């Protein structure tokens, strides 16, 4: 999967260095993944949920939440080729920030 953008991860752990290891682990696993469905995401990251158009990843045992929108690969019927899947990081936050529910506005539900 193509992750857009690693910069958001780097900016977050520059402010909260304790999050670096866990966020970079999430990034590495996600970059290597070839997801075609939510079940595939769940196989890679068991602590993931869906809310509206967003996927909510629990990072490091609920210390942080990463909210992303996933565009799964699609088959081009003319060429027979699959598009590249993309994961758009919307926000990263602490569990306390997550509980304020402000992130839900971006998820269309």
Characterization of this structure:
With 109 residues, the chain is an alpha+beta fold. The protein has one domain (2-107). Helix content is 31%, strand content 28%. A 5-stranded mixed sheet has the order 1-5-4-3-2. A hairpin with a 2-residue loop joins strand 2 (48-51) and strand 3 (54-59). It is globular, with a radius of gyration of 14 Å.
Q: What does the largest sheet look like?
A: 5 strands, mixed
Strand order of the largest sheet: 1-5-4-3-2
Mean pLDDT: 94
Low-pLDDT regions: none
Net shape? globular
- What class would the helix/strand composition place it in? alpha+beta
**C-alpha termini separation:** 25 Å
- Give the SSE string: EHHHEEEEH
Helix content: 25-40%
The number of distinct helices, counting runs of at least 4 residues, comes to 4
Count of discrete domains? 1
User: Strand portion, in percent?
Assistant: 25-35%
By DSSP, the count of extended strands is 5
Radius of gyration: 14 Å
Which features would summarize this protein structure in a list?
about 110 residues; alpha+beta; 4 helices; about 30% helix
């Amino acid at each position: 999967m193509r992750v857009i953008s690693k910069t958001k991860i780097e900016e977050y752990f520059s402010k909260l260095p304790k999050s670096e290891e866990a966020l970079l682990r999430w990034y590495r696993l996600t970059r290597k993944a070839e997801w075609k469905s939510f079940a595939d995401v769940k196989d890679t990251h068991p602590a993931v949920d869906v809310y509206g158009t967003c996927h909510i990843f629990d990072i490091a045992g609920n210390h942080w939440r990463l909210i992303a929108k996933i565009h799964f690969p699609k088959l081009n019927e003319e060429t027979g080729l699959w598009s590249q899947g993309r994961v758009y990081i919307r926000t990263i936050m602490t569990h306390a920030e997550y509980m304020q529910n402000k992130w839900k506005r971006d998820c269309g539900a």
